[in-house]
Amino acid sequence: MNLSIYLKLYFANTFGKVKIKPTYKHLEYMYENNFVIPITDGYTKIAGFPVPTHSDWHTITSDGKKAMWDKGSHLKTRLISLIAVIISFLALLINFYKK
Fold this sequence. Notes:
Arc Repressor Mutant, subunit A, alpha+beta, three-stranded antiparallel sheet, 3 strands, elongated
C-alpha cells in the first residue's frame, strides 16, 4: 500500500465516504483487497430487472480500516525519521555556513 491509497482510506474513515474516480490507478487493487465498496446511487432497469448504479463515492470497509491502521504506523514512523534527517541536514548546513 502506498501513500495515495492510505490517504484515500484515511479520508474515507474520517468523513465516512471519499470520491474516487473510475480512472484512479489503484482502484482495482482496493476492490481486490476489499478496502472500499462503492455507494449505490440508484437503480436502472435492464430488460425489466433493476440493476444498481454506483457513483464515484466509496465507503471504507473493516478490511480497509485494518489495513489503514496497520500501514499507518509504518508511514508515521517513516515520516518522523524523514523529518529528523531533514532537520539534521539543515543543522549541518547552518553550522557549516556559520563558520
